[in-house]
Design brief:
single chain, 504 residues, alpha/beta, Leucine Aminopeptidase, subunit E, domain 1, Aminopeptidase, 2 domains, six-stranded mixed beta sheet, disordered N terminus
Length: 504
Protein backbone atom coordinates (compact mmCIF):
# COMPACT_ATOMS: atom_id res chain seq x y z
CA UNK A 1 0.00 0.00 0.00
CA UNK A 2 1.16 3.54 -0.72
CA UNK A 3 0.02 6.74 0.99
CA UNK A 4 0.35 9.67 -1.37
CA UNK A 5 0.55 13.24 -0.09
CA UNK A 6 0.77 16.11 -2.56
CA UNK A 7 1.17 19.41 -0.72
CA UNK A 8 -0.41 22.75 -1.50
CA UNK A 9 -0.90 25.97 0.53
CA UNK A 10 -4.47 25.09 1.47
CA UNK A 11 -4.71 21.31 1.88
CA UNK A 12 -7.26 19.54 -0.26
CA UNK A 13 -7.94 15.94 0.72
CA UNK A 14 -9.88 13.19 -0.99
CA UNK A 15 -9.60 9.45 -1.14
CA UNK A 16 -8.10 7.37 -3.89
CA UNK A 17 -8.30 3.58 -4.11
CA UNK A 18 -6.38 1.79 -1.36
CA UNK A 19 -6.89 4.78 1.00
CA UNK A 20 -4.22 6.89 -0.67
CA UNK A 21 -4.26 10.44 0.67
CA UNK A 22 -3.54 13.38 -1.58
CA UNK A 23 -2.71 16.81 -0.18
CA UNK A 24 -1.10 19.80 -1.93
CA UNK A 25 1.72 22.15 -0.77
CA UNK A 26 4.03 24.46 -2.68
CA UNK A 27 7.33 24.00 -0.84
CA UNK A 28 9.58 21.33 0.59
CA UNK A 29 9.41 20.57 4.29
CA UNK A 30 12.78 21.33 5.92
CA UNK A 31 12.65 18.08 7.89
CA UNK A 32 12.44 15.97 4.72
CA UNK A 33 15.14 13.31 4.51
CA UNK A 34 14.60 11.25 1.38
CA UNK A 35 14.08 13.15 -1.86
CA UNK A 36 13.30 12.23 -5.47
CA UNK A 37 14.31 14.75 -8.10
CA UNK A 38 14.03 14.94 -11.89
CA UNK A 39 17.28 15.60 -13.75
CA UNK A 40 18.50 15.64 -17.34
CA UNK A 41 21.77 16.18 -19.16
CA UNK A 42 20.96 19.93 -19.11
CA UNK A 43 20.53 20.11 -15.32
CA UNK A 44 22.74 22.74 -13.66
CA UNK A 45 24.02 23.17 -10.10
CA UNK A 46 21.80 26.24 -9.75
CA UNK A 47 18.73 24.01 -10.19
CA UNK A 48 19.48 22.53 -6.76
CA UNK A 49 19.84 25.83 -4.95
CA UNK A 50 17.97 25.74 -1.66
CA UNK A 51 17.54 21.95 -1.89
CA UNK A 52 21.05 20.47 -1.52
CA UNK A 53 24.33 21.91 -0.34
CA UNK A 54 26.91 22.85 -2.96
CA UNK A 55 29.11 19.79 -2.47
CA UNK A 56 26.25 17.36 -2.90
CA UNK A 57 24.94 19.35 -5.89
CA UNK A 58 28.35 18.95 -7.52
CA UNK A 59 28.22 15.23 -6.76
CA UNK A 60 24.91 14.91 -8.64
CA UNK A 61 26.19 16.93 -11.63
CA UNK A 62 29.36 14.84 -11.74
CA UNK A 63 27.26 11.70 -11.72
CA UNK A 64 25.15 13.01 -14.60
CA UNK A 65 28.18 13.94 -16.69
CA UNK A 66 29.69 10.50 -16.16
CA UNK A 67 26.54 8.70 -17.25
CA UNK A 68 24.84 11.02 -19.74
CA UNK A 69 25.64 8.88 -22.79
CA UNK A 70 24.31 5.62 -21.42
CA UNK A 71 21.42 6.57 -19.18
CA UNK A 72 17.87 7.04 -20.44
CA UNK A 73 14.85 7.33 -18.18
CA UNK A 74 16.58 5.56 -15.31
CA UNK A 75 16.33 5.97 -11.57
CA UNK A 76 19.37 5.80 -9.30
CA UNK A 77 19.92 6.14 -5.58
CA UNK A 78 22.62 8.29 -4.00
CA UNK A 79 23.25 8.65 -0.27
CA UNK A 80 23.69 12.20 0.99
CA UNK A 81 24.00 11.07 4.61
CA UNK A 82 23.78 7.65 6.21
CA UNK A 83 20.00 8.07 6.71
CA UNK A 84 19.19 10.25 3.69
CA UNK A 85 18.68 8.90 0.17
CA UNK A 86 18.34 10.86 -3.05
CA UNK A 87 16.56 9.15 -5.93
CA UNK A 88 17.75 10.69 -9.18
CA UNK A 89 15.12 10.37 -11.90
CA UNK A 90 17.16 10.73 -15.08
CA UNK A 91 14.85 11.90 -17.87
CA UNK A 92 15.81 11.75 -21.52
CA UNK A 93 13.79 11.72 -24.73
CA UNK A 94 10.36 11.16 -23.24
CA UNK A 95 8.07 10.59 -26.21
CA UNK A 96 4.68 9.70 -24.76
CA UNK A 97 2.55 10.00 -21.62
CA UNK A 98 2.80 6.23 -21.21
CA UNK A 99 6.59 6.50 -20.89
CA UNK A 100 6.04 8.97 -18.08
CA UNK A 101 3.67 6.53 -16.36
CA UNK A 102 6.18 3.71 -16.76
CA UNK A 103 8.85 5.92 -15.24
CA UNK A 104 6.56 6.50 -12.27
CA UNK A 105 6.03 2.75 -11.91
CA UNK A 106 9.83 2.24 -11.97
CA UNK A 107 10.14 4.92 -9.28
CA UNK A 108 7.75 2.97 -7.07
CA UNK A 109 9.76 -0.21 -7.61
CA UNK A 110 12.93 1.66 -6.63
CA UNK A 111 11.31 2.98 -3.44
CA UNK A 112 10.43 -0.58 -2.45
CA UNK A 113 13.90 -1.84 -3.36
CA UNK A 114 15.56 0.80 -1.18
CA UNK A 115 12.99 0.14 1.59
CA UNK A 116 12.12 3.83 1.77
CA UNK A 117 9.04 4.57 3.87
CA UNK A 118 8.85 8.35 3.46
CA UNK A 119 10.05 10.36 0.47
CA UNK A 120 9.35 13.75 -1.08
CA UNK A 121 9.48 14.26 -4.83
CA UNK A 122 10.17 17.65 -6.39
CA UNK A 123 8.55 18.88 -9.56
CA UNK A 124 10.62 20.99 -11.94
CA UNK A 125 9.37 23.44 -14.55
CA UNK A 126 12.51 23.08 -16.64
CA UNK A 127 12.41 19.30 -16.70
CA UNK A 128 8.69 19.26 -17.37
CA UNK A 129 8.80 21.65 -20.31
CA UNK A 130 11.82 20.13 -22.05
CA UNK A 131 11.00 16.48 -21.56
CA UNK A 132 7.19 16.44 -21.54
CA UNK A 133 7.08 15.25 -17.94
CA UNK A 134 3.76 15.89 -16.21
CA UNK A 135 3.76 15.05 -12.54
CA UNK A 136 0.14 13.89 -12.71
CA UNK A 137 1.08 11.20 -15.25
CA UNK A 138 4.19 10.24 -13.27
CA UNK A 139 2.09 9.84 -10.12
CA UNK A 140 -0.53 7.88 -12.08
CA UNK A 141 2.16 5.33 -12.93
CA UNK A 142 3.08 5.07 -9.25
CA UNK A 143 -0.55 4.50 -8.28
CA UNK A 144 -1.15 1.87 -10.96
CA UNK A 145 1.95 -0.03 -9.88
CA UNK A 146 1.19 0.19 -6.16
CA UNK A 147 -2.08 -1.77 -6.29
CA UNK A 148 -2.38 -4.66 -3.86
CA UNK A 149 -5.27 -6.96 -3.02
CA UNK A 150 -4.94 -7.97 0.63
CA UNK A 151 -8.56 -7.80 1.72
CA UNK A 152 -8.54 -11.27 3.22
CA UNK A 153 -5.24 -11.14 5.11
CA UNK A 154 -6.07 -11.16 8.82
CA UNK A 155 -2.57 -10.05 9.76
CA UNK A 156 -1.89 -6.72 8.11
CA UNK A 157 1.78 -6.06 7.44
CA UNK A 158 2.46 -2.37 7.99
CA UNK A 159 4.43 -1.32 4.94
CA UNK A 160 2.86 1.97 3.94
CA UNK A 161 4.95 4.32 1.84
CA UNK A 162 4.40 8.03 2.26
CA UNK A 163 5.14 9.97 -0.90
CA UNK A 164 5.09 13.78 -0.66
CA UNK A 165 4.90 15.48 -4.04
CA UNK A 166 5.93 19.12 -3.96
CA UNK A 167 4.86 21.26 -6.88
CA UNK A 168 4.26 24.88 -7.68
CA UNK A 169 0.69 26.11 -8.14
CA UNK A 170 1.20 26.79 -11.84
CA UNK A 171 2.23 23.19 -12.37
CA UNK A 172 -1.07 21.78 -11.18
CA UNK A 173 -3.27 20.35 -13.92
CA UNK A 174 -6.54 19.68 -12.12
CA UNK A 175 -8.36 18.55 -15.25
CA UNK A 176 -5.68 15.98 -16.06
CA UNK A 177 -5.50 14.84 -12.44
CA UNK A 178 -9.25 14.23 -12.29
CA UNK A 179 -9.19 12.36 -15.60
CA UNK A 180 -6.37 10.09 -14.44
CA UNK A 181 -8.12 9.50 -11.13
CA UNK A 182 -11.23 8.35 -13.01
CA UNK A 183 -9.13 5.92 -15.03
CA UNK A 184 -7.36 4.69 -11.89
CA UNK A 185 -10.68 4.07 -10.15
CA UNK A 186 -11.97 2.12 -13.15
CA UNK A 187 -8.81 0.01 -13.44
CA UNK A 188 -8.70 -0.73 -9.72
CA UNK A 189 -12.40 -1.61 -9.64
CA UNK A 190 -11.72 -4.11 -12.41
CA UNK A 191 -8.73 -5.48 -10.48
CA UNK A 192 -10.83 -5.82 -7.34
CA UNK A 193 -13.53 -7.76 -9.17
CA UNK A 194 -11.04 -10.12 -10.80
CA UNK A 195 -9.17 -10.66 -7.52
CA UNK A 196 -12.23 -11.68 -5.51
CA UNK A 197 -12.60 -15.43 -4.82
CA UNK A 198 -15.42 -17.36 -6.43
CA UNK A 199 -17.25 -17.98 -3.18
CA UNK A 200 -17.55 -14.22 -2.67
CA UNK A 201 -18.04 -12.88 -6.19
CA UNK A 202 -20.57 -15.35 -7.57
CA UNK A 203 -23.12 -14.11 -10.12
CA UNK A 204 -25.65 -13.02 -7.49
CA UNK A 205 -23.11 -10.83 -5.68
CA UNK A 206 -21.58 -9.56 -8.92
CA UNK A 207 -24.95 -8.31 -10.15
CA UNK A 208 -25.48 -6.48 -6.84
CA UNK A 209 -22.11 -4.72 -7.12
CA UNK A 210 -22.90 -3.54 -10.63
CA UNK A 211 -26.26 -2.17 -9.46
CA UNK A 212 -24.37 0.04 -6.98
CA UNK A 213 -22.83 1.89 -9.94
CA UNK A 214 -26.14 3.69 -10.38
CA UNK A 215 -24.87 6.30 -7.90
CA UNK A 216 -22.40 7.47 -10.58
CA UNK A 217 -25.19 8.24 -13.06
CA UNK A 218 -25.17 4.91 -14.88
CA UNK A 219 -28.42 3.19 -15.81
CA UNK A 220 -28.18 -0.45 -14.73
CA UNK A 221 -30.71 -3.09 -15.77
CA UNK A 222 -30.55 -6.67 -14.51
CA UNK A 223 -32.14 -9.50 -16.48
CA UNK A 224 -32.53 -12.52 -14.20
CA UNK A 225 -33.15 -16.14 -15.13
CA UNK A 226 -36.91 -15.75 -15.54
CA UNK A 227 -36.49 -12.80 -17.91
CA UNK A 228 -33.69 -14.51 -19.82
CA UNK A 229 -35.82 -17.62 -20.30
CA UNK A 230 -38.67 -15.55 -21.73
CA UNK A 231 -36.17 -13.76 -24.01
CA UNK A 232 -34.81 -17.07 -25.29
CA UNK A 233 -31.24 -16.66 -24.00
CA UNK A 234 -30.82 -20.42 -23.73
CA UNK A 235 -27.13 -20.47 -24.69
CA UNK A 236 -26.24 -18.31 -21.68
CA UNK A 237 -28.69 -20.11 -19.36
CA UNK A 238 -27.34 -23.50 -20.37
CA UNK A 239 -23.89 -22.60 -19.04
CA UNK A 240 -25.23 -21.59 -15.65
CA UNK A 241 -27.88 -24.26 -15.15
CA UNK A 242 -25.59 -26.51 -13.09
CA UNK A 243 -25.02 -23.84 -10.43
CA UNK A 244 -27.09 -23.03 -7.37
CA UNK A 245 -26.41 -19.38 -8.18
CA UNK A 246 -28.43 -17.32 -10.62
CA UNK A 247 -27.50 -16.41 -14.18
CA UNK A 248 -27.81 -12.80 -15.34
CA UNK A 249 -27.44 -10.43 -18.24
CA UNK A 250 -26.70 -6.92 -16.96
CA UNK A 251 -26.72 -3.76 -19.06
CA UNK A 252 -24.91 -0.58 -17.98
CA UNK A 253 -25.80 2.55 -19.95
CA UNK A 254 -24.01 5.89 -19.99
CA UNK A 255 -25.55 8.83 -21.82
CA UNK A 256 -22.90 11.53 -21.97
CA UNK A 257 -23.91 13.00 -25.30
CA UNK A 258 -26.79 15.44 -25.58
CA UNK A 259 -27.85 13.99 -28.92
CA UNK A 260 -29.34 10.57 -29.49
CA UNK A 261 -26.32 9.17 -31.30
CA UNK A 262 -25.88 5.42 -31.42
CA UNK A 263 -23.94 4.14 -28.43
CA UNK A 264 -20.57 2.43 -28.40
CA UNK A 265 -21.13 -1.10 -27.10
CA UNK A 266 -18.84 -3.23 -24.95
CA UNK A 267 -19.69 -6.83 -24.09
CA UNK A 268 -17.95 -8.96 -21.47
CA UNK A 269 -17.77 -12.62 -20.53
CA UNK A 270 -18.54 -13.00 -16.82
CA UNK A 271 -17.98 -16.63 -15.88
CA UNK A 272 -17.40 -16.15 -12.17
CA UNK A 273 -15.97 -19.63 -11.79
CA UNK A 274 -15.30 -22.18 -14.50
CA UNK A 275 -14.92 -25.85 -13.60
CA UNK A 276 -15.30 -26.76 -17.26
CA UNK A 277 -18.58 -28.48 -16.45
CA UNK A 278 -18.70 -32.15 -17.41
CA UNK A 279 -15.74 -31.47 -19.71
CA UNK A 280 -13.91 -31.02 -16.43
CA UNK A 281 -10.72 -29.01 -16.25
CA UNK A 282 -7.58 -30.55 -14.68
CA UNK A 283 -7.34 -29.84 -10.94
CA UNK A 284 -3.96 -28.12 -11.36
CA UNK A 285 -4.45 -24.35 -11.56
CA UNK A 286 -8.26 -24.59 -11.48
CA UNK A 287 -8.12 -21.98 -8.70
CA UNK A 288 -7.16 -19.47 -11.40
CA UNK A 289 -10.62 -19.85 -12.91
CA UNK A 290 -11.90 -17.16 -10.57
CA UNK A 291 -10.61 -14.70 -13.17
CA UNK A 292 -12.67 -16.16 -16.01
CA UNK A 293 -14.90 -13.12 -15.58
CA UNK A 294 -12.11 -10.63 -16.37
CA UNK A 295 -13.67 -9.60 -19.68
CA UNK A 296 -16.83 -8.49 -17.93
CA UNK A 297 -14.80 -6.77 -15.20
CA UNK A 298 -13.00 -4.70 -17.84
CA UNK A 299 -16.36 -3.62 -19.27
CA UNK A 300 -17.67 -2.70 -15.81
CA UNK A 301 -14.48 -0.78 -14.94
CA UNK A 302 -14.60 1.07 -18.26
CA UNK A 303 -18.22 2.13 -17.70
CA UNK A 304 -17.32 3.42 -14.23
CA UNK A 305 -14.42 5.41 -15.71
CA UNK A 306 -16.65 6.97 -18.39
CA UNK A 307 -19.13 8.06 -15.74
CA UNK A 308 -16.49 9.42 -13.36
CA UNK A 309 -14.83 11.53 -16.02
CA UNK A 310 -18.19 12.56 -17.50
CA UNK A 311 -17.35 11.28 -20.97
CA UNK A 312 -19.20 13.07 -23.77
CA UNK A 313 -20.31 9.92 -25.59
CA UNK A 314 -23.13 7.42 -25.36
CA UNK A 315 -21.99 3.94 -24.37
CA UNK A 316 -23.42 0.68 -23.12
CA UNK A 317 -21.77 -2.22 -21.36
CA UNK A 318 -23.39 -5.65 -21.43
CA UNK A 319 -22.13 -8.51 -19.28
CA UNK A 320 -23.28 -12.10 -18.97
CA UNK A 321 -22.81 -13.46 -15.45
CA UNK A 322 -22.82 -17.21 -14.82
CA UNK A 323 -21.07 -20.05 -12.99
CA UNK A 324 -20.05 -23.14 -14.94
CA UNK A 325 -20.45 -25.93 -12.40
CA UNK A 326 -20.93 -29.70 -12.29
CA UNK A 327 -24.21 -31.06 -10.90
CA UNK A 328 -27.13 -33.30 -11.77
CA UNK A 329 -28.67 -30.35 -13.55
CA UNK A 330 -25.57 -29.26 -15.46
CA UNK A 331 -25.38 -29.05 -19.23
CA UNK A 332 -24.16 -32.25 -20.94
CA UNK A 333 -21.91 -32.78 -23.94
CA UNK A 334 -24.27 -33.46 -26.83
CA UNK A 335 -27.00 -31.10 -25.64
CA UNK A 336 -28.53 -28.76 -28.22
CA UNK A 337 -29.71 -25.27 -27.24
CA UNK A 338 -31.49 -22.51 -29.11
CA UNK A 339 -29.81 -19.12 -28.73
CA UNK A 340 -31.37 -15.65 -28.49
CA UNK A 341 -30.66 -15.23 -32.21
CA UNK A 342 -32.77 -18.29 -33.02
CA UNK A 343 -29.73 -20.28 -34.15
CA UNK A 344 -29.19 -23.71 -32.60
CA UNK A 345 -25.93 -24.87 -31.03
CA UNK A 346 -24.70 -28.38 -30.35
CA UNK A 347 -22.63 -28.48 -27.14
CA UNK A 348 -19.70 -30.82 -27.77
CA UNK A 349 -17.51 -29.42 -25.00
CA UNK A 350 -19.00 -27.82 -21.88
CA UNK A 351 -15.66 -26.08 -21.22
CA UNK A 352 -16.17 -24.00 -24.37
CA UNK A 353 -18.75 -22.06 -22.38
CA UNK A 354 -17.68 -18.43 -22.67
CA UNK A 355 -18.65 -18.27 -26.33
CA UNK A 356 -22.15 -19.46 -25.40
CA UNK A 357 -22.52 -16.62 -22.90
CA UNK A 358 -21.24 -14.10 -25.43
CA UNK A 359 -23.40 -15.48 -28.24
CA UNK A 360 -26.62 -14.36 -26.54
CA UNK A 361 -25.07 -11.17 -25.21
CA UNK A 362 -23.78 -10.09 -28.64
CA UNK A 363 -27.06 -10.62 -30.49
CA UNK A 364 -29.02 -9.00 -27.67
CA UNK A 365 -26.73 -5.95 -27.69
CA UNK A 366 -26.93 -5.55 -31.44
CA UNK A 367 -30.72 -5.94 -31.49
CA UNK A 368 -31.58 -3.74 -28.52
CA UNK A 369 -29.05 -0.90 -28.74
CA UNK A 370 -28.18 -0.79 -32.48
CA UNK A 371 -24.65 0.44 -31.60
CA UNK A 372 -21.97 2.07 -33.75
CA UNK A 373 -19.77 -0.92 -33.00
CA UNK A 374 -19.51 -3.85 -30.60
CA UNK A 375 -16.30 -4.82 -28.84
CA UNK A 376 -16.36 -7.95 -26.71
CA UNK A 377 -13.72 -8.97 -24.19
CA UNK A 378 -13.23 -12.47 -22.83
CA UNK A 379 -10.69 -14.81 -21.28
CA UNK A 380 -11.89 -17.13 -24.00
CA UNK A 381 -9.17 -19.61 -24.98
CA UNK A 382 -5.95 -21.08 -23.66
CA UNK A 383 -4.90 -21.26 -27.29
CA UNK A 384 -4.38 -17.48 -27.41
CA UNK A 385 -1.79 -17.83 -24.64
CA UNK A 386 0.04 -20.42 -26.73
CA UNK A 387 0.00 -17.95 -29.63
CA UNK A 388 0.75 -14.64 -27.91
CA UNK A 389 1.76 -15.40 -24.33
CA UNK A 390 1.27 -12.51 -21.93
CA UNK A 391 2.48 -9.77 -24.28
CA UNK A 392 -0.51 -9.27 -26.59
CA UNK A 393 -4.24 -9.76 -26.46
CA UNK A 394 -5.72 -11.44 -29.51
CA UNK A 395 -7.81 -9.24 -31.81
CA UNK A 396 -10.36 -10.64 -34.23
CA UNK A 397 -12.58 -8.30 -36.21
CA UNK A 398 -14.83 -7.85 -39.22
CA UNK A 399 -13.74 -4.20 -39.59
CA UNK A 400 -10.30 -2.85 -40.57
CA UNK A 401 -10.92 0.67 -39.29
CA UNK A 402 -11.97 -0.49 -35.83
CA UNK A 403 -9.04 -2.90 -35.72
CA UNK A 404 -6.53 -0.16 -36.47
CA UNK A 405 -8.07 2.12 -33.85
CA UNK A 406 -7.80 -0.64 -31.25
CA UNK A 407 -4.22 -1.53 -32.13
CA UNK A 408 -3.16 2.14 -32.02
CA UNK A 409 -4.88 2.64 -28.66
CA UNK A 410 -3.19 -0.44 -27.28
CA UNK A 411 0.26 0.79 -28.30
CA UNK A 412 -0.32 4.16 -26.64
CA UNK A 413 -1.20 2.69 -23.24
CA UNK A 414 0.95 -0.48 -23.45
CA UNK A 415 -2.04 -2.80 -23.53
CA UNK A 416 -1.06 -4.31 -26.84
CA UNK A 417 -3.18 -6.25 -29.34
CA UNK A 418 -2.23 -8.49 -32.26
CA UNK A 419 -4.72 -9.06 -35.05
CA UNK A 420 -5.50 -12.69 -35.80
CA UNK A 421 -7.21 -14.12 -38.89
CA UNK A 422 -10.85 -14.79 -39.65
CA UNK A 423 -11.72 -16.78 -42.79
CA UNK A 424 -14.60 -18.78 -44.23
CA UNK A 425 -12.47 -21.95 -44.17
CA UNK A 426 -12.15 -21.61 -40.41
CA UNK A 427 -15.85 -20.83 -40.12
CA UNK A 428 -16.99 -24.06 -41.74
CA UNK A 429 -15.11 -26.04 -39.09
CA UNK A 430 -17.86 -25.26 -36.58
CA UNK A 431 -20.72 -26.55 -38.75
CA UNK A 432 -22.72 -29.28 -37.03
CA UNK A 433 -24.55 -32.29 -38.44
CA UNK A 434 -27.21 -32.01 -35.76
CA UNK A 435 -27.66 -28.24 -35.30
CA UNK A 436 -26.79 -24.97 -36.98
CA UNK A 437 -23.34 -25.07 -35.43
CA UNK A 438 -21.28 -26.70 -32.71
CA UNK A 439 -19.34 -24.94 -29.99
CA UNK A 440 -15.91 -26.40 -30.89
CA UNK A 441 -14.40 -27.22 -34.26
CA UNK A 442 -14.36 -30.83 -35.35
CA UNK A 443 -10.73 -31.18 -36.50
CA UNK A 444 -8.86 -29.45 -33.65
CA UNK A 445 -6.33 -26.63 -33.89
CA UNK A 446 -6.95 -22.91 -34.47
CA UNK A 447 -8.83 -22.83 -31.18
CA UNK A 448 -8.86 -19.06 -30.78
CA UNK A 449 -9.81 -18.36 -34.39
CA UNK A 450 -12.66 -20.87 -34.55
CA UNK A 451 -13.97 -19.50 -31.26
CA UNK A 452 -13.99 -16.03 -32.84
CA UNK A 453 -15.70 -17.44 -35.96
CA UNK A 454 -18.37 -18.85 -33.66
CA UNK A 455 -18.94 -15.41 -32.09
CA UNK A 456 -19.08 -13.70 -35.48
CA UNK A 457 -22.10 -15.80 -36.41
CA UNK A 458 -24.06 -13.92 -33.73
CA UNK A 459 -23.37 -10.48 -35.25
CA UNK A 460 -26.53 -10.68 -37.31
CA UNK A 461 -26.66 -7.21 -38.90
CA UNK A 462 -22.97 -6.88 -39.80
CA UNK A 463 -22.32 -4.26 -37.12
CA UNK A 464 -18.59 -3.39 -36.90
CA UNK A 465 -17.32 -5.85 -34.32
CA UNK A 466 -14.10 -6.79 -32.58
CA UNK A 467 -13.41 -9.69 -30.26
CA UNK A 468 -10.54 -9.34 -27.76
CA UNK A 469 -9.30 -12.63 -26.35
CA UNK A 470 -7.51 -11.50 -23.18
CA UNK A 471 -6.83 -14.87 -21.55
CA UNK A 472 -3.09 -14.13 -21.37
CA UNK A 473 -3.47 -10.51 -20.26
CA UNK A 474 -6.05 -10.37 -17.47
CA UNK A 475 -3.93 -11.95 -14.76
CA UNK A 476 -0.18 -11.94 -14.32
CA UNK A 477 1.94 -14.27 -12.19
CA UNK A 478 4.97 -11.97 -12.36
CA UNK A 479 3.61 -8.47 -12.91
CA UNK A 480 4.11 -5.98 -15.72
CA UNK A 481 5.30 -2.45 -16.38
CA UNK A 482 2.29 -0.80 -14.73
CA UNK A 483 0.94 -3.59 -12.54
CA UNK A 484 2.13 -5.87 -9.79
CA UNK A 485 1.42 -9.59 -9.93
CA UNK A 486 -2.25 -10.56 -9.91
CA UNK A 487 -5.18 -8.91 -11.69
CA UNK A 488 -3.95 -6.40 -14.27
CA UNK A 489 -7.10 -4.44 -15.11
CA UNK A 490 -6.26 -4.99 -18.78
CA UNK A 491 -8.73 -3.42 -21.17
CA UNK A 492 -9.92 -0.39 -19.23
CA UNK A 493 -7.12 1.98 -20.28
CA UNK A 494 -7.09 0.48 -23.78
CA UNK A 495 -10.78 1.09 -24.44
CA UNK A 496 -10.78 4.45 -22.68
CA UNK A 497 -7.98 5.61 -24.99
CA UNK A 498 -9.87 4.26 -28.00
CA UNK A 499 -12.84 6.41 -27.01
CA UNK A 500 -10.80 9.54 -26.21
CA UNK A 501 -8.78 9.42 -29.42
CA UNK A 502 -11.55 8.54 -31.86
CA UNK A 503 -15.04 9.16 -30.52
CA UNK A 504 -14.99 12.20 -28.21
Amino acid sequence: MIILNIYKVQPEVYLIHMSLKINYLDKLNNSTKNIGIFVSKDTKITDFKGIFNENFSKKIIGYLRANKKSEKNKIYCLNEDYDKKILIIFVSKIESPNEVKSLGANFYDQIKKEQIKNISILGSNSINSKNKIKLEEFIHGIELKSYEFNLYKTKKIHKDIILNVVKLKNQADVKLRNRLKAILDGVNFTRDLVSEPGNVLHPDEYAKRIVKLRKFGLKVTVYDQNKLKKMGCNALLGVGQGSIRGSYLVTIEWKGSKNNSKPLAFVGKGVCFDTGGYSLKPAKFMEDMTYDMAGSAAVVGLMKTLALRNSKINAVGVVGLVENMVSGNAQRPGDIVKSYSGKTIEILNTDAEGRLVLADALTFTEHKFKPQFIIDLATLTGAIIVSLGSEYGGLFSNNDKLSKQLIDAGEKVDEKLWRMPLHKNFDKLINSKNADMQNINYVGGAGSTTAAQFLQRFIIKKTPWAHLDIAGMAFSKYGGALNSSGATGYGVRLLNNLIEENYE
